[in-house]
Design brief:
two-stranded antiparallel ribbon
């Protein structure tokens, strides 16, 4: 099964193959930090942990490598990708460009009904006590994720494939493990509202600019946390 099919797995029917199942389980464990960044991949250990034979496990690992959650290094073997400042900067530079474009296209192509559904989604986010109190802003994967909805709203399948299949869970790994808390919570929520208002007003240029600024601010927030971890 192609990665494009699996990327929406949080909102699709249960996996239908052993490879799909173990892919989702390992993917979730990596994003949540249950499999630590930089930790070595042991196929026998994973096969026992997830109760799967080696063939579907290897297929799942190959797919995880294609979406950049694991990497293979000479003389080391496969390991969970590390969270690093260098990796963050490279990834978020690409996010700024591509998600800015997604916003521009969403302003052209999202229906009024889709925009209203996005407003309802933001209302749901604000209803979360931790968001209201400025403690943290956590979004579930897939259709409950503001960014995911914007990307789908672009209606550009190539863009969707890159952002929702190839890069989505690596981005989530940074977002989930580094978190969003403190003053950044309220600002991030307000930035989401401003981006959606620009899309609703069919102002693609403004939506593009606001998304770029939003992602740049998020990158800076995560970079500070990574620097603290280094010290």
């Amino acid at each position: 099964m192609a990665l494009a099919t699996f990327a929406q797995s949080p909102n699709l029917k249960p996996a239908i193959t052993a490879s799909d199942r173990v892919l989702f389980e390992i993917q979730r464990a990596i994003v949540a930090g249950e499999m630590a960044p930089g930790s070595k991949i042991s196929e026998p250990d994973l096969a026992r942990r997830f109760n799967v034979s080696r063939a579907p496990l290897r297929e799942a690992l190959a797919r995880l490598e294609r979406c950049h959650l694991i990497e293979r290094l000479p003389n080391i073997g496969a390991r969970v990708v590390n969270l690093s400042i260098e990796g963050l900067i490279s990834l978020y530079q690409l996010r700024e460009e591509l998600e800015g474009l997604a916003c521009r296209l969403a302003a052209e192509h999202m229906s009024d009904n889709e925009i209203e559904e996005m407003r309802s989604l933001l209302d749901e986010h604000l209803a979360t006590q931790r968001v209201r109190d400025g403690e943290s802003y956590y979004q579930e994967a897939g259709d409950l994720d503001f960014h995911y909805r914007i990307i789908l709203g672009s209606k550009n399948q190539y863009l969707i494939n890159i952002l929702c299949d190839e890069l989505y869970y690596l981005v989530r790994m940074y977002r989930v493990q580094m978190g969003m808390n403190g003053p950044r919570v309220s600002r991030a929520f307000d930035e989401h509202k401003a981006i959606l208002n620009a899309i609703a007003n069919r102002d693609g240029e403004l939506a593009d600019l606001l998304m770029r600024r939003h992602i740049s601010a998020s990158r800076h927030n995560i970079e500070l946390q990574l620097q603290k971890m280094r010290n």
